[in-house]
Fold:
Amino acid sequence: MSFTRRPVISKTRQLILDTDVLARRAFLEATTIFADRTLERHHAVVRTWNSRPAFSRNVRIERFRIIAEIKPKGRHAKKWFWVDQGTGGGRADGKGSPYIIRAKRVGGKPGLLRFRIGHNPRTLPIAKFNQGDGSSSGPFRSAREVIHPGIKARQFTKTWTDELAPEYRAIIERMFRQFQRRG
Structure:
């Protein structure tokens, strides 16, 4: 006769383990709600973009933390970072740093950039979207190289995280009050 030995767990230890499971489940649910709301806002911003990125949402529990990640994906993912964080390379003031744009070579010969001077952006700092129609105006210009003035950070992700944080805290506090009533 085979006999499997089961560890003896005290009632107090079992209560702690059960509470931990319930707390993790509630934290995961609250974080998933938070991530879904943030993801909806990401989709709303890029809805009118011609070359819009897709986004992936990942919520997971690790040993000492719960992580919600929303990442742009696809061939236009970089565009999201340029718009959200600016081209300032981490500048504290959120202003974009100038950068050079060069024309691609065509058939071994230097190409030309062709662009208009005026632009009506669809997004504006800080965290404003659907502000313009994304159109260009003015006369056409050509150049082999231009120095772009930089993209100012729109700070969508930071703004939304700050806006949703009180609601997230309220969900967590409500969860702990429910645990106190049970115990």
The mean pLDDT is 82.
